[in-house]
UniProtKB/TrEMBL annotation:
Sorted UniProt keywords: Cell membrane, Membrane, Transmembrane, Transmembrane helix, Transport
Protein name per Swiss-Prot or TrEMBL: Gnt-I system high-affinity gluconate transporter
UniProt cross-references to PANTHER family, sorted A to Z: GNT FAMILY GLUCONATE TRANSPORTER, HIGH-AFFINITY GLUCONATE TRANSPORTER
Cross-referenced InterPro entries: Glcn_transporter
Membrane topology: Multi-pass membrane protein
Cellular localisation: Cell membrane
UniProt-listed NCBIfam families: gntP (TIGR00791)
Top-level taxonomy: Bacteria, Pseudomonadati, Bacteroidota, Chitinophagia, Chitinophagales
CC terms in the record's Gene Ontology section: plasma membrane
Molecular function GO terms recorded: gluconate transmembrane transporter activity
């Protein structure tokens, strides 16, 4: 009965947005309230659950999206994205530009959280597709597939690290096995699947539709790349911090401060303000106007993501994930498949990949400790299952939809299918690798 209520609420959400033409933020809030009441959350506690969901979701992402949008707008307006697009097109050729972006997403996705990588690389993608009149979904989906796979499969991302701790798995082996499995998964969900979407039309956010500048007004190649990708460089550098033998508490505190993604993005934004703004002859007032324009575009997106967080929290507080996991724990399936399936169903019901993965891990952990299952492969199996079928209760779904300005239908056809291919390809890779390790 619980699962039927969840499905009915998700159907209500889809109908409100697509047929009823409701604003997605309001539709998400109405659905969260309906789901909470139907699933037995006391009315007196439901507002707190909704507020917690909005607060927790936006608290971890609002500054990243805001700083990323400002940096992306500056990169676009200054001509840095146009310069980078020209360099990549010359190096790889226009016909292979989606492969260039796939490699970029793969490399950037290893040290960087998905949301950070998304807001930093999407302006470059939009610049390339506008400059060379290319279909944005076809060109961009391989890059997003790479970012998603890195985030779901590989340490040092939070979910794989947490799963590795639960299963007592080696982070080093998890990383190696994850790279082996991630490569074919990205190829299947990226370039191969994207070929079916060449005809899909998208009109991305207005802020990131660049005006072409004369070549003499463009920043230099080094300036363009280092200003746009400085957060990537800095975040990659922070990956080495845990290996530094720093004992002084004050020094440790400063290292932790500067390794925070929000602080690194703010620092990168200030550097870009000079290198792509003041150094290019722009006044601070002009750059601030660009920043304000960027925030106008992403404010509705932030509200939608907050609404998705409210729905997710209501589903978590109602105990849906625990009920589903408990109901499936007695299925007679191979442990690697069972771990994937539990994570997948919780992901579909709740929307959060992290909640799906950790809940499934709590159920499946005893099978791992009993032996007979490679812990590192279980991390990857559960991680793959937690990515399946991203849809209307997942903030990543709305982030993609709003940035690319797609319909609900086209978002399902592109984003949701891409994430599902990643999940099944990951399971297939785990089962194949299980025969050799």
């Amino acid at each position: 009965m619980t699962f039927l209520i969840v499905l009915a609420c998700l159907l209500l959400l889809i109908l409100l947005v697509s047929w009823g033409k409701f604003n997605p933020f309001l539709a998400l809030l109405f659905t969260a309230i309906a789901a909470g009441l139907l699933l037995g959350i006391p009315p007196a506690k439901l507002p707190a659950s909704i507020q917690k969901g909005i607060g927790d979701t936006l608290g971890s992402i609002v500054l990243i999206i805001s700083f990323g949008a400002m940096l992306g707008k500056l990169v676009s307006d200054s001509g840095a994205a146009q310069k980078m697009a020209a360099v990549l097109a010359k190096a790889f050729g226009i016909n292979n530009i989606n492969w260039a972006l796939l490699v970029t997403g793969f490399v950037v996705g290893i040290p960087m959280f998905y949301n950070v990588g998304f807001v930093l690389l999407v302006p470059l993608l939009f610049s390339i597709t506008y400059q060379y009149r290319l279909p944005v979904v076809y060109v961009g989906l391989p890059m997003l597939a790479a970012l998603s796979v890195m985030h779901g499969f590989l340490p040092p991302h939070p979910s794989p690290v947490a799963l590795a701790a639960q299963f007592n798995a080696s982070l080093g082996l998890t990383l190696i096995y994850g790279l082996i499995i991630a490569t074919p998964a990205v190829l299947l969900a990226g370039p191969l699947f994207a070929r079916t979407l060449k005809g899909m039309q998208a009109k991305p956010l207005e802020s990131f539709r660049p005006n072409e500048l004369p070549s003499e007004q463009l920043p230099g190649t080094f300036n363009a790349f280092i200003s746009a990708l400085l957060p990537v460089v800095l975040l990659a550098a922070t990956a080495a911090l845990p290996y530094l033998q720093v004992n002084a508490p004050a020094a440790k505190g400063w290292l932790q401060f500067f390794s925070d993604p929000t602080i690194l993005l703010l620092l990168s934004l200030l550097i870009a303000l000079y290198s792509l703004g003041i150094a290019q002859g722009k006044s601070i007032k002009t750059v601030m106007v660009s920043f304000a324009d960027a925030m106008k575009d992403v404010t509705p997106l932030l509200l939608i993501i907050g609404g998705a967080g409210a729905l997710k929290q209501v589903l978590i507080d109602s105990g849906v994930s625990t009920q589903i996991a408990a109901g499936m724990s007695n299925l007679s399936l191979p442990p690697l498949v069972l771990g994937w399936l539990i994570a997948a169903i919780i992901r579909i019901a709740v929307g959060s990949a992290t909640v799906a993965g950790l809940t499934a891990a709590g159920i499946i952990a005893p099978l791992v400790t009993q032996g007979g299952v490679t812990p590192e492969l279980m991390v990857l199996s559960v991680g793959a299952g937690s990515l399946v079928c991203s849809h209307v209760n997942d903030s990543g779904f709305w982030m993609y939809k709003e940035y690319f300005n797609l319909s609900i239908r086209d978002t399902f056809r592109s984003w949701t299918l891409m994430e599902t291919i990643v999940a099944f390809a990951g399971l297939g890779g785990v089962l194949v690798l299980d025969r050799f390790v």
